[in-house]
Amino acid sequence: MDFSIREARKEDMGQVWGLIHELAVFEKEPDAVEVTTEDLIRDGFGKFKHFHCFVAEKDMEIVGIALVYPRYSTWKGPAVHLEDLIVAEKMRGTGLGTALLDEVVKYGHRLGVRRICWEVLDWNEPAIKFYEKKGAHVMRDWNVVQLDEQGIKNYVESLD
């Protein structure tokens, strides 16, 4: 293994943002990233820590990340949500994704969670196969539901 996995530090957030943007390009939404490096520093290392991040590093470069945050399931109890597991294109197929997922699962186990959950795009067959091979259950009969910032604003305004 010619990379290492560690917990992210504030100074990593510029490179973490770069990988987030790389993922957005891969997912055909290059202009969708609104979060900034400053947001990542504030939200991951500020007074209220909104996420925990692992990074994969090779030759002093961040080449992968796994970003997680706590959730609570009304059916299961404590859970962790894996927001993104990103492997730089040049590092795919090296075992880096497995190493990052291993860290996430060990982290959830240490926290005593009863579920680790995440989403995967239905057209991303390599990722689906990867997760299923690891024992994850891809629930194809569930749909992701979101209110974006404008949707939230519209909803609140409709309450008046």
Task: Summarize the helices and strands and which ones pair or pack.
Elements: E1 4-7, H1 13-26, H2 37-45, E2 52-58, E3 61-73, E4 77-87, H3 96-111, E5 115-117, H4 125-133, H5 149-158
Parallel strand pairs: 4-5
Antiparallel strand pairs: 1-2, 2-3, 3-4
CATH topology: Aminopeptidase
Stretches with pLDDT under 50, minimum 5 residues: none
Number of helices: 5
User: What is the strand tally?
Assistant: 5
Could you state the CATH homologous superfamily? Answer: Gcn5-related N-acetyltransferase (GNAT)
Mean pLDDT: 96
Q: How would you sum up the global shape?
A: globular
| Total count of domains | 1
The SSE string, one letter per element, is EHHEEEHEHH
- Please outline the major beta sheet: 5 strands, mixed
- Coarse structural class: alpha+beta
Describe the protein's architecture and organization:
With 160 residues, the chain is α+β, with helices and mostly antiparallel strands. The protein has a single domain, classed as Gcn5-related N-acetyltransferase (GNAT) (Aminopeptidase), CATH 3.40.630. Helix content is 36%, strand content 24%. The chain contains five helices and five strands, in the order E-H-H-E-E-E-H-E-H-H. The chain has a five-stranded mixed beta sheet with strand order 1-2-3-4-5. A hairpin with a 2-residue loop joins strand 2 and strand 3. Helix 1 packs across helix 2. The longest helix has 16 residues. The protein starts with a strand and ends with a helix.
